[in-house]
Design a protein that fits this description.
Strand order of the largest sheet: 3-4-5-6-7
Distance between the termini: 64 Å
Order of helices and strands: EEEEHHEEEEEEHH
Helix content: 25-40%
Radius of gyration: 26 Å
Structural class: alpha+beta
Length: 189
Amino acid sequence: QVASFQGVAVRSLSTSSPHDHPEHGRLVYKGNLAKTVLGVKFFSYSTSIFNLFMMPYIMLKSGIGVESLLVQAAFYGLIGIFTFVTPVTLHILTKGYVIRLYYKDEVDTYTAITYNAILAEKATVFHQKDVKIPDITKMFTTFYAKTKSMLVNPTLFPNPQDYNHLMGYDKSSFFKFEDLEEVKEADER
């Protein structure tokens, strides 16, 4: 890598790839919806906070405080749904979306980076043997890492072998070559 610093060429002697992370390993996947997920969650949180701060003003100016108890409960319930339920639902739906996935060859571990409830990046470390594929296809789950559901797009893996190894497709096969030869021998008899 060559970088320019005030007209002087500086050569980096680093041997690692720009996709390597010293702690997590080699980058094998990068989700293309990471900025969208962050933006939608941020917008939802900011509108909820805005609603909480505007409620006293709206209550004072609208005169809803003098109406019946039933009208107050309906109004508070409607505002509460948009203020609290929407961000919680968005978090539940997107908490397993993997924004980056790293792999360490030496120890056969993966590190999945996701967003937590406060929009900070959260690292989940798991072994390949901890990966479970759901029996029934689920909408927001590609695989389970231990018990946590993860969502990745298989077409975004630059190297298909990385996806195959993650899912365990490279280790198990539906039939082995030896089994095929046994079937052939049985047919010949």
